[in-house]
Design goal:
single chain; alpha/beta; 3-stranded antiparallel sheet; 7 strands; 32% helix
Length: 146
Amino acid sequence: MATHLFQLKADWPGGRNSEGFIEAGNLKTKISIPKEMDGPGIGTNPDEMLLGAAATCYLITLAAMIERSSLPLKQMELESVGHVDVTDGVITYKKIVHKPTVYLQPTATEREQEKLRRLVDKAEESCMISRAIKGNVEVVLEPTLG
């Protein structure tokens, strides 16, 4: 068994509406509370980062599965939407909707198309971020396949 360590350093100089900075490997960015939550909206924020982690993990997992299955990929894109609820001052990340668009080459067989349909679901179940948030944040797939 291998354990991989990922480190993040953060600088936060002030109160709630300050702007900070994070650095983790290739990720180097300003951070603050988003404007939607009455913050300064400078740089990124936890809501975007959780959505980004879930989306990129899903996309990379799906790409690896498509490659391992030798499916003739033509094009793949992903749009993801995070749903954050604020009720009585309590902020809860409720749901992430992944909307993958995946097209195989026109030469793809019906069997390859069926394999793609299975992989789209399996990638969400296999992604380590999806597994990490399971039971806390609902993840929904709305694929467009061709």
